[in-house]
Here is the input.
Amino acid sequence: MELRQLAYFVAVAEERSFTRAAERVHISQSGVSAQIRQLERELGAELFDRSARTATLTVAGRAALEHARAALAAAGAVGQAVSDVTGLIRGRLTVGMVVGCTVTPLFDALAAFHRAHPGVEINLLEDNSDRLVEGVRVGTVEVALVGTATAPEGLETLTIISERLVAAVPAGHPLAALRRVALRDVAGYPIVCMPPGTGLRTVFDRACAAQDLRPVIAWGASAPDAIADLAARGLGVAILSDSMAARYRDRVVARAIEDAATPALLALIWRSTHSPAARALLAHSREAFSRAGPG
Here is the structure.
């Protein structure tokens, strides 16, 4: 007994015609008839009454029909399961990353994923966080590392870093001499910050709006390196996260902005319905970030 014989049997039963069934399965009528005759010989019973103009199921045929349908459905489920696996082996995965990202555990996760599934084509997309969040929502990006003020609504989130904002200035700057720095102190100077649509900028803008402050954003840059360099040259007060600023201790002095209470988040985001490839990357990402530890 073969699956194709069961498929032909179901087609004839549903079409009530050998001719229409042959058209449906794209083989000759004689081919359908021959295969069903073979099936009947194997089962030891006729499945159709061929005495009328239409193909009518016999008692044996009616007994066999639902089982034949179930067997075909089970075979389809097997095919879907294999497709899920081959999706990991041969698929395509689009991963988003906020511009200027230097979080090495993400690269470790991508490398581990590539070693495990070398047949997957990985497309790495750099963009600002707002556009990456929208990409995940609409499905053009499957997993993204974004900076954000709050976890995006309706998406799954794995928070990687949660940190307060700091003001970074050169050693001779007046803010460097203060033990406590407030937003109002910072807003009195030109600001060097990330562009709109990034997590840090959103947190900073919201904190200023809450106090009705309107600082001058004199310089905008997507990369923390550029922001720190501009601040080190006295062109403005850099707004960074604590861990970002720590990388530039040789160039700037960092002071926590004490009344900017909402932390900036760096997080992996994805939709609850995601592909097997995305699922595997998330597993590698959790492992990589777990090894890296907090921050």
In short: The chain has three domains: 3-86, 91-161+265-292, 165-262. The chain is about 45% helix and 20% strand.
